[in-house]
Amino acid sequence: MIVTPNRSLSEEVENLLNEQIKMEGRSSAYYLSMASWCETKGYTNSANFLYNHSDEERGHMLKLFRYINEAGGHAIQPASHDIKHSFKSLREVFENVLDHEIQVTKSIHDIVDHCLSNKDFATFNFLQWFVMEQREEETLARRVIEVFDIIGEEGVGLWTIDQEIGKLHTTAHAG
Predict the structure, then answer these.
(1) pTM of the model
(2) DSSP state, 4?
(3) In the chain, N or C terminus with fewer CB closer than 10 Å?
(4) Residue 97, SS3 per DSSP
(5) Cα torsion for 49, 135, 89, 163, to the nearest 10°?
């Protein structure tokens, strides 16, 4: 890692973090699209869950932006395109959430591994927040899928699932 008076972040790490910014920005846009779909289908609790999740992902992106810029790099605003807007079912929405969160976790872990192996301890430490955040997000997404499995989608099942998703979101953000 080359450190200069003007920069404490290597260009390689800057590029990796800018790629993560793209992923977080895409997450925010993707969850916003999912929220809109849920709202148009009458799943108001799921929509609120996803609107809030979209805001959180944007917050993650901003956290990375500030870190890069403060370390002498240049954070780049990502473009959002090719976002899916239609889904077959509420379950598909949340299966996509889980799959996406697993991808984000892998990406964070890859950057953490790179930072550790290149002795960029400041960025390694900064990323520990993201490591723990991803654990929470994956756990919450898995719990939503479990709700589908436990309740079932027949009869009032989808209505009940939507109610439970609202409770999960409230519980997850109370602690």
Answers:
(1) 0.89
(2) B
(3) C
(4) helix
(5) -40
